Amino acid sequence: MALKPGQVKCIQTLDSSLAVSAGAGSGKTFTLTRRIVHALESGAVDDIGRVLAITFTTKAAAELKSRVKGALRAEGMIDQALKVDAAWISTIHGMCARILRAHALEVGVDPSFAVLDEAAARPLLDAAVNEVLASANDLVAPDGLDALFAEYPARSRGPRGGGSVDDLVRTLVMAASANPQGMGALVLPQAVDEKEIVRRMMASAEGVLAAAEAQKPGKSRDALVAGTRAALEACAEALARGLRDGEALGLLGQFPVPGRAFGTPEFKELAAEAAEEYCACMAEARFGRAVPLLSDALLLAERVLAAYRRRKREAGGLDNDDLLVETARAFERLPGLAADYADRFQLVMVDEFQDTDQLQVDMIKRMAGPACERLCTVGDAQQSIYRFRGADVSVYHRHVEETRKANPDGLVLLPDNFRSHADVLAFVDRVFEQPQTFGSSFMSLAPARDESRVARPFLGTGPRIDVQMVTCPHRGVPAEQACRVAAQGIARRFAALRDAGHAAGDMVLLLGSTTRAGVYAEELRREGFPCVVVKGSIFNRAPEVRLMVRLAQAVANPLDSLALFEVLSSELFALSADDFLVLTTGRDEESGAYRRRPLLYGLMAVAGGEGGVEPSPPLAAAARIVEKMGRATGRMPLSAIMEGMVRDSGWFSRMEQAGAEGQARAANVLKAVRMAEDVERAGAAGPASVAARLAERVEAAKEAPGALSAEGGDFVRIMTVHASKGLEFPIVAVAELGQGAGRGDKLLTERVSGAVYASLDLGGSVSGIKDSSLLAKCAKATLGCEDLDEQELAQVVEDRPSAASRHAAIRALQAAGEEQEARRLLYVALTRAKEALVLSLSGKRTKDNPSGAKGLAADVQSALCGPEGLFPEGRAAFDFGGTRPCAFERVDLNVEEPERVEGAKEGVEAEGFGGAGEVAAPKQGVTALGGAAEPGLFDVCEVAEYAPRWDVPLRSARDGVFSYSSIAPAADGGAEDADEASRVSFGGVWTRGNDDAWACDEGGADGDDDAWAAICASLSGDAAATDLGTAFHRLAQYAVIRREGGRLARPSDERVTAICRSCGLAAGQRARLEAALGRWFGSSVATRVAGCANVRAEVPFFQLIDAEGAPVYLEGEIDLLAIGAAGSGEALVVDYKTGGRPDEDPAHLHEKHLLQATCYAYVVLCQGYEAVEAVFVRVEQQDPDDPAEPQCVRYRFAAAERVSLEKAILAAYHASRP
Q: Are 138 and 126 in contact (CB under 8 A)?
């Protein structure tokens, strides 16, 4: 094949800087390969070791090495070919790692450092965050940061996050980690003077007031005048006495916003300008109020970054950011090293240059010659899709412009596409040549492939380009319903192509994200297609991967009955209910009675032929394999045991025989095993440690499924667009682009000119405000940024230090960047296709936008229908410049109206399915039973009078789960037990009746009015009786968390005050609290706890108990758990008790807390401890024998008592059941 002019220029120009723009499918890898070979042949480069070639992925580096090696051999340069494996052809992170290892002592890093991937680095960052934040308890804040923790929760509550202190700190830490200046790179907005903002608002309002008073009186005018006067008076009064902290927001919110409801045209114009000024003032107050909170978050982030770096040093690892930053710093600090690499390479090439950032570019240019004459960059701005990883396409544009100015001949275009049919390229042209997409910068791709050499040509008789648009009303149709309709359309089109002769392996579905990949897979399978999700960060969500984690936990601890049950009941062994009955029932040899037994003991009995029951084949096999596992544990790596169990069970063979999907699952299983091997190689010692770290790595892993998923096979592949980069397929369907919802992060950061600019919004103080309020509207104020381009917005971010202006500019800059990135993502997706495209779009119809097209859909709509055109209803065909027209279908989903029934309200009519192209979505939550007519929307339903059924016992909403407090007899000692109930469960107070059934006693047990009042108060929201206990527990927890040097950290007066305030304690209660704290911290128990090796506060548990074949779960939380020296085998459980009466005798107290002690001891013994001491510390009662000590109730339990403890717990559980 003859080379194109651009290829020739790229290959032969070796003495000046080149910036090569290589379009999709232009053969750039081939061109780079030939360039390296030509440089060696011509003598411009004397050795392959003096070539530096940077690729974006390790896979791409391996491919380039392979091609270079083959080309050199073909040219007879065998000696050079043999050196390729050691050549500097790698990712930029690989290059940095190589430099750092070679100069480790000079740089100051461990020469044997490990490169930490995200899965390995994340637990270290998590630990650093936890270390600094000190607690997962939202109510415990590090010293001096109460305002920050009052405004934002400590941890995120939802999956998306973005608004917690944890989120803020992580964002700042990651921004600093990726910058050589560290925390010094972060630039915060200027603090605001709230008095000046109030005066500015007043000045604007006075102008409005004067103008309004000159207008004709009326209701709207009079209300504006009166409200403005009142607000001005309130502001003047506040300024005269001095503004209180945070008062400005409330003052500004009192001003009525002027509108256009009355007045002359001049007044209306003034009102519009004033409304903008009001919004700007409120925005300055709102975002300015967050500036000191951002400073507090920055202080925390500095501590977390220091802890994170320390933990990485201790682990002997560097993450990818460290590799870049440390190398850049080495070049700055070590002139000799910089000089060495400045002259080391005679040829420097960077592939996928559009996905680099400024730090990487600066580093590479150091090694490319004084005028970068040895540098050749290859990229395509239209394929820059890694903004979320820090890639900055503006760096690419700047470099191209610098090259153009320095060497106009250095700009090289590779516009020839050797991949796609002309129709595909014509459609791409039609969409992206538009001014609002890529416009004048668009590089059109010229069809250059030889059609006679196409291996798998298009076999269909219809169009090569299909576009479907699924629309729904603004409300009323679930997103998954629209997704399913889109999936059905794609599946039908694929089925038609299959009927025309295409194999399933010709087809791929590219998604913006794999969130709804399961819906598409389900519809494809319904059409008879085998399909596999082969790319995307979904590995850790696969059921078979989760099962492998549970298998590792079961191998590490076979007495973990829950993990073992999940493994045995899974498809690995598929044991039946009868099998589990055999396993959990054993005959007592002494009494002859049948009793419960743990699953492991049952397996051991079956393996030994005990019990006299012939096991089923699956059970016999499971017992044999688990017995083999037991013999291997401790002698073989856990990963090898896992792999052996998978193979011996036949599960792997069954998956391999299940076609493409089974093979994909098998690949995931093997990948999990290999991940366990990696954990073992990283130094995890012992099965328990390996299992724990494997669970952490799987949870943190953002990885694609196993390799078998993507290799060969006649099945439809489903992957993300990002994962498809560099690949090509005959038939491509594209969906779910532009569907992502923004996180709504409180903290925005943007990198501009090497600095990281940050802006923070308020949290809790602005939650729940009305959308129509000025305080809500100002959060989205554009403040003059609406008409600026990205370069101008970046300048605003740098030049305007005010909090509101910077926030508006960062938000606008990020929105513009994300909009363009979405377009580039669509471009990449479309250019993966060789023969045909199916593009699925979606949108919401409104009165102003009847076609529903917005964003990417609007781009395609204008490309096919013209700038002012709309997608038509139903089916249509569009000429786009291809050999065949584009087929189009619009599917409109509608909310189904209720059918009209006799007696319905007038004017309420039913609508059935729409006409052609319309599909009605099922009405949610409405079901007709027995043919009865559904009521109209506003019909009044008759409801039978409520009659209580006292004969029907109330049942727990979580049947089978219980806590100590739900099975305990009534409290008998004052508020100390009420506190326990308030923190664990409010199930009521129960007492034994004459008929031996548990019945509710309306008056409380033994007339214990204090306990009954405490529970009732808690249920009614007036929990004063239990607030003191809550405050004590929080402060005691804090003391454990901040423990240092063998001493508990006694809380400061300021912290006690803060906790008292948050719990609403009265002065008298505070005195009681301080006395209780003094008694606890001065006790011998506290001294003993402080000296223990491991101490944890508020330890939750969820313990399985096999209640006669019906598993139940005991849940709760231990106030304090302390472990002595490692290997001692003994644990100390401490439970704090507030309240109580001083006249309770020891025997009564012992009986009173026995069940709680039994529950806690049983749970701890189940974890493998030999003995447990439980101490109940009555922090408000003196020890009768030693007034300096609190009264303590002590218990001791040994491992041999575990069975009897379980019996006692189950007896209480069954007795508490109605």
A: no
